[in-house]
Design brief:
About 35% of the residues lie in helices and about 20% in strands. With about 300 residues, it is α/β, with parallel strands linked by helices. Helix 2 crosses helix 10. The longest helix has 25 residues, at about 215-240. The two termini are about 15 Å apart. Bound molecules: zinc ion.
Length: about 300
């Protein structure tokens, strides 16, 4: 049985595990990034590879898949422009994270793309729009079982489509992005602008009062509707089998899948509105690691053929 290593790099931790698609994960762990700087980042990567080497032996790993936030330029492999979740990780190549003289085949991709790939495999659907709603909004598009990257690697940037002309400033520097309205952090920021009493509350505290606070309820409803409108546009163009929605804010109960499905379907052409399903992600916080393993395993198998 071939063993692959999957690494999912987030804004505050490295999640990793090894295994393969058919038999699943044999191991799954998290290393916390204590300080957000480049030295700590490389130190955590080193600790990760030391741990894998001591437990299973790097020589036994057939391939390494890495997922990370940020738009990755297809031609250079570099994470470019601004990277709000990992501001120090720009103009770097993921190869720099591997141990010196490591000859193990590796592949990398954006973390939301890998979430969509993992869900596509697990839910056995080949045409998938995968969305993560957390502090930001990530999106991956899977067409015919493979990640769709576009011409330059920037496909699927759903969080940064303009949903409100000249609207609120987004982390990316533009105005009116979906992420500024419909993400967990977007909701928090909008409420804080409305009334400073919300400014001290985290997302869990905000969601705890959504039944009793009409302002919170209204803002959540608006965020949900904007997400549904954006997804209905994307689905109208791409004709997916399924739209899969996950992420930390969804796990906390920010939006309702049934309501999203009904709002999306209302806006789709009649011919495919009943066919497109909207479902919750089922791989939870392991999706990035599983997607990274699927990515490198596919690459490994295509070379074997
Ligand atoms: Zn933006």
């Amino acid at each position: 049985m071939n063993i692959f290593l999957g690494i999912d790099i987030g804004g505050s931790s490295f999640k990793y595990g090894w295994g393969n698609c058919e038999e699943g994960l044999q191991s799954y762990q998290t290393l916390v990034l204590q300080r957000k700087n480049i030295d700590d980042f490389f130190a955590v990567a080193k600790e990760l590879f030391n741990d894998v080497d001591s437990k299973i032996g790097l020589n036994n790993i057939k391939g390494i898949g890495i997922g990370m936030p940020g738009a990755i330029d297809k031609t250079t492999g570099l994470v470019t422009e601004n990277n709000p979740n990992l501001p120090f990780w720009v103009e770097h190549h993921p190869r720099e994270l591997l141990p010196e003289n490591c000859n193990i085949p590796f592949a990398f991709d954006n973390d939301a793309n890998l979430m969509a790939l993992a869900e596509s495999y697990t839910q056995k659907k080949n045409y998938v729009i995968g969305v993560t709603v957390g502090s930001g909004i990530g999106c991956g598009i899977v067409i015919d079982g493979k990640i769709y990257h576009g011409a330059y690697g920037f496909a699927g940037e759903l969080g940064h489509i303009c949903i409100v002309d000249k609207g609120l400033k987004c982390n990316c520097g533009k105005n009116g992005c979906l992420e500024a309205y419909s993400s967990g952090e977007g909701l928090r920021r909008r409420l804080a602008l409305k009334n400073p009493r919300y400014a001290e509350m985290d997302l869990s505290a905000i969601l705890a009062i959504k039944e009793t606070d009409t302002v919170v309820a209204d803002y959540i409803k608006q965020g949900q509707l904007m997400l549904a409108i954006a997804l209905s546009c994307l689905a109208t163009c791409l004709d997916p089998e399924i739209i899969i929605i996950g992420g930390g804010a969804m796990d906390l109960g920010l939006y309702y899948i049934e309501e999203l499905e009904s709002e999306i379907r209302k806006r789709l052409p009649a011919a495919h509105s009943a066919k497109v399903k909207v479902a919750k992600a089922i791989n939870g916080n392991k999706a990035g690691v599983l997607g990274a393993i699927k990515l490198i395993e596919d690459k490994f198998n295509s070379k074997e053929e």
